Amino acid sequence: MPLSPEQQAEIDAQRSTRQETRRVVSEGMEAHLYTAYPVLDHGFIRVIDYMGDDAAICQAARVSYGRGTKSVTNDEGLIRYLMRHWHSTPFEMCEIKLHVKLPVFVARQWIRHRTANVNEYSARYSILDREFYIPAPEHLAAQSVVNNQGRGEALTGDEAQRVLEYLKADSARAYDHYEEMIGQEGQQGLARELARMNLPANIYTQWYWKVDLHNLLHFLRLRADAHAQYEIRVYAEEMCKVVADWVPFAFRAFEDYRMGGATLSSTALDCVRRMLKGEEVTQENSGMSKGEWREFQGVLEG
């Protein structure tokens, strides 16, 4: 299950306690504190702590001592200007700390974003739970024939069932041997730091992940994208919901200029200008490779 009884009891106790503060608070984020949102079959995300809000971004941009400006419209306009012109520092003034439970192979992708502070559950000191990510049948797919790091058509019938049985059986067998190696009655047992190497990459781990808003938005731009691997994308999509309530002005600007926008090369811009003048532009006379032209067409066609 996503949360152990001990973790749920701790969360319930934390949510029942309120404290006065002089710090800036985001009412939208306050509602998310100490709530675990399930992801995949055994995973979750939950907000542990945060700092700042939309007004803090504006305050940092102006290096002022007040909360934003006299007008909310001015604050939103400033945030949109900062996002539009790629000014990153004011967004770094906001931070969030998340507790995440995720499969190890997802964690290996996630940790590639080296701009966060991370503390992971240690299998050197503790014994990992018998929890593995087993994909739903609709997420079992063949290798893509056009993308070396993507998926193709979903597996069906006997082949899908065979793969599921392999995943379940191999996970269970590896954990059985892990338990046997770390010690039984009458034997010394293998050290935990060695026994863990036998565990599969779909076993669940947990960590605390603290990151500033600028780098969080970069993470979300890549991992909430439709081309991202499903198993990390669902975490990013759940995080998007939290960020939208935390800093609504910043998130709307992010959706507009990053998630919904596109960056064009000088060659692509030249092609757009030629098209607007009525010229017929093809891949052969565009100056682009076939791959670049395919991506360019994807931007134009939406």
From TrEMBL:
Region annotation (Disordered) ranges: 1-21
Pathway: Pyrimidine metabolism; dTTP biosynthesis
Gene: thyX
GO molecular function, one term: thymidylate synthase (FAD) activity
Note describing how the cofactor binds: Binds 4 FAD per tetramer. Each FAD binding site is formed by three monomers.
Entry-linked PANTHER family: FLAVIN-DEPENDENT THYMIDYLATE SYNTHASE
Record carries keyword Transport: no
Function as written in the Swiss-Prot or TrEMBL entry: Catalyzes the reductive methylation of 2'-deoxyuridine-5'-monophosphate (dUMP) to 2'-deoxythymidine-5'-monophosphate (dTMP) while utilizing 5,10-methylenetetrahydrofolate (mTHF) as the methyl donor, and NADPH and FADH(2) as the reductant.
Gene3D superfamilies: 3.30.1360.170
Regions of compositional bias (Basic and acidic residues) in chain numbering: 12-21
Record-level GO BP terms: dTMP biosynthetic process; dTTP biosynthetic process; methylation
Name this protein carries in UniProt: Flavin-dependent thymidylate synthase
Keywords (A to Z) from UniProt: FAD, Flavoprotein, Methyltransferase, NADP, Nucleotide biosynthesis, Transferase
EC number: 2.1.1.148
Family named by the database record: Belongs to the thymidylate synthase ThyX family.
NCBIfam families recorded: thyX (TIGR02170)
InterPro entries (UniProt xref): Thymidylate_synthase_ThyX, Thymidylate_synthase_ThyX_sf
Binding site for FAD: T89, R112, H113, R114, E120, D212, L213, H214, H218
Cofactor(s) the protein needs: FAD
Subunit-level organization: Homotetramer.
Residues binding dUMP: Q109, W110, I111, R112, E120, Y121, S122, A123, R124, R196, R223
Organism: Roseovarius indicus
Enzyme class: transferase
Reactions catalysed, as given in the entry: dUMP + (6R)-5,10-methylene-5,6,7,8-tetrahydrofolate + NADPH + H(+) = dTMP + (6S)-5,6,7,8-tetrahydrofolate + NADP(+)
Residue numbers annotated as active site: R223
Keyword ATP-binding: no
